[in-house]
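Continuing the batch. This is chain 6 of the set; chains 1 through 5 are on the previous pages. Same settings as before, nothing changed between runs. Recording input and output for traceability.
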Amino acid sequence: MSSSSRRPPYAWSWTTVDIEMSLSREPRYALTEVAVRCDVHPKTVRQYEELGLVAPVGETRSPVRFSDQDIDRILRIRRLVEDLGVNFAGVEVILHLRDQLIHLQRAHGGETRGSGR
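Output for chain 6:
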């Protein structure tokens, strides 16, 4: 039995960087379109913004625009809150740790698993 088949189903996916890199960072979606795509009320998206959980691009005088990465993040927040019962403080910590992991994976060239240990 290989080591990958013995991993528990909740084991972290090492393709996080690949997935993250495939999502566009180009701000192209308006708030209402994002709300429809994420199946949430626009006020929910604004609440996530106010809490600093999502940071779309926009000037004070122009409409805020969201990217595919923002949509992915909103869907992730929604799953954590609605499906798993995580509060917003917990969501903030989880997303921060996820961002750190992605940063570390990028810094190490997306290496999959420990090569020296």
